[in-house]
Write a structure and sequence with these properties.
about 290 residues, Rossmann fold, 10-stranded mixed beta sheet, 8 helices
Length: about 290
């Protein structure tokens, strides 16, 4: 999504409706940022035996790959003709979420845009793999669920909690905010401890200063009491302001437990957000980056 260089957005494609919606979303973003697209289809090897009588058959696999490549090339051709966007076509086999994360790094993609669930059987690429892609990706992942028409990211929800990681996404808030002339709607809450409240206020002021310095519009809403959990409050807030995007961090609650895919808050936002796209950003292992500290 960078505006200064011609970067590439990776789009996993399984030809399902939700994947097509995500691709349409990616086309609009790529058009705005003058980015290229990479269309990736991953053949999950564990699924192939379901279509064979006696295990794997290379001829069947090869025929399937030829068919997939033709479909992807046709998609790329149509996108180029209609939107003037260059598309790279990639077919891989293996663990879906690992291939998506690895190809994003191999191609130097700066983001991934994908649907949150896919088709059943041989074409399934997204579905249950979404949280694993988010967890393993080193670049932001935009999760698209709805087939609603794409809207510019003019109204962005920026949840802010006490974690240092929560503030790392300000870099992306500034990038997207400048590109779309967005309003960054910061949502935070009060806690019972005065020291923690002061800490939260300090982080808030830091983010406000950075947004002001970069000419990005913003609003601030502080919840006095959380009626439910912060994820539910975030989604209610997003609905109330008719948001176009929710921006979250995906820090895990247990870094040593590899199967604990992403943090509970992030899981709830991704699972429950029905219409608003969610951009998921993994925190830097070094914590809050020094170029955004103050």
């Amino acid at each position: 999504m960078e505006t200064t260089t011609k970067n590439t957005i990776l789009v996993p494609v399984d030809f399902s409706d939700i994947a097509n919606h995500a691709l349409n979303h990616a086309v609009q973003v790529a058009t705005h940022f003058n980015n290229d697209l990479a269309l990736l289809h991953v053949v999950e090897e564990s699924i192939l035996p379901n279509f064979l009588s006696f295990g794997k058959d290379n001829s069947i696999v090869q025929a399937a790959n030829v068919d997939i490549e033709q479909k992807l090339n046709e998609l790329a051709k149509n996108i180029k003709a209609e939107h003037k966007i260059d598309c790279k076509v990639v077919i891989k086999s293996g663990r879906i979420y690992k291939q998506i994360a690895e190809i994003a790094m191999e191609l130097g993609c700066d983001s991934i845009i994908m649907g949150s669930n896919g088709a059943a059987g041989f074409e399934q690429i997204i579905g249950s793999n979404a949280s694993r892609v988010i967890s393993h990706s080193e670049v932001p992942v935009v999760v698209v669920k709805s087939n609603s028409e794409f809207r510019s990211y003019r109204n962005i929800v920026f949840p802010l909690d006490l974690t240092i990681e929560s503030r790392q996404k300000v870099k992306w808030a500034i990038l997207i905010g400048k590109a779309y002339q967005s309003t960054i709607n910061i949502l935070t809450y009060k806690v019972g401890d005065e020291f923690l409240n002061n800490k939260m206020h300090s982080g808030l002021r830091q983010i406000e200063r950075l947004l002001e310095e970069n000419g990005v519009n913003y609003t601030v809403e502080v919840l006095n009491d959380l009626e439910g959990n912060f994820a539910d409050e975030t989604l209610k807030f997003a609905d109330r302001i008719d948001a176009d995007l929710i921006m979250i961090m995906t820090q895990s609650e247990d870094k040593d437990f590899s199967e604990y895919i992403i943090g509970t808050y992030a899981q709830q936002i991704v699972n429950k957000s029905q219409h608003v796209p969610v951009i998921c950003i993994n925190p830097s292992p070094m914590g809050y980056q020094t170029d955004y500290s103050g």
